[in-house]
Amino acid sequence: GAVVSQHPSWVICKSGTSVKIECRSLDFQATTMFWYRQFPKQSLMLMATSNEGSKATYEQGVEKDKFLINHASLTLSTLTVTSAHPEDSSFYICSARVSGINNEQFFGPGTRLTVL
Amino acid sequence: AQSVAQPEDQVNVAEGNPLTVKCTYSVSGNPYLFWYVQYPNRGLQFLLKYITGDNLVKGSYGFEAEFNKSQTSFHLKKPSALVSDSALYFCAVKASGTYKYIFGTGTRLKVLA
């Protein structure tokens, strides 16, 4: 149980385009989803907390207009990287919180974004 | 401030030898502690967690970790390392009353045949 998927698993795009990444909880409802960013050989940095039906809460230093987060249902959150630039190239990982099970997070497999 | 420290960037160990990957934490309240493993270009795989109870926690793939409150540590251990254990290991903490996880910087484990 508690499986989280991400789509796509990898994406290459041109500079200036927008890219949408989906995060789905497959067998449970997730009140809260989290988006992390991981640079090569570095740790995961929390970007934002996404609550179903409300605006996301962004961590300090994360541009809200750059990284648009939508959590329209209890099983889907999307991260859109707008007007992507090469410095946005990174590994993006989402996680979903299961209410009541010690509020644990279950992680998706990640999406590798490369901006040319 | 809440934080997690993994003091070693890399740990090398010979196959068959015991391994230890260190983690210390600083958090208010009772911590929830986790270990995850990450293989190249993959997401995080859960290994084990400490929420409460027995200080020695057993997890997946023969890994275990010991919660030491006085030393604020949660070191990951395995009695006999395998080459396939070579990966990046992350320690994480969730402070009581919050949903956020704080990750350590990661330790690359290299098991030599």
Model description:
The complex is a heterodimer of chains A (116) and B (113). By secondary structure, chain A is mainly beta. Chain A is 0% helix and 53% strand. Chain A starts with a strand and ends with a strand. With 113 residues, chain B is mainly β. In chain B, strand 10 and strand 11 (101-103) form a beta hairpin. Chain B is globular and about 45 Å long. The termini of chain B are far apart. Classes of the chains: A mainly beta (116), B mainly beta (113). The A-B interface holds A 6, 10, 32, 34, 41-44, 46, 49, 91, 93, 95, 97, 102-110, 112 and B 32, 36, 41-44, 46, 49, 51, 90, 94, 99-101, 103-106.
Mind sketching the topology for me?
The complex is a heterodimer of chains A (116) and B (113).
Chain A: E1 4-7, E2 10-13, E3 19-25, E4 32-38, E5 44-51, E6 57-58, E7 67-73, E8 76-81, E9 90-97, E10 105-107, E11 111-115
Parallel strand pairs in A: 2-11
Antiparallel strand pairs in A: 1-3, 3-8, 4-5, 4-9, 5-6, 7-8, 9-10, 9-11
Chain B: E1 3-5, E2 10-14, E3 19-21, E4 24-26, E5 31-38, E6 44-50, E7 56-58, E8 64-68, E9 73-78, E10 87-95, E11 101-103, E12 107-112
Parallel strand pairs in B: 2-12
Antiparallel strand pairs in B: 1-4, 3-9, 5-6, 5-10, 7-8, 8-9, 10-11, 10-12
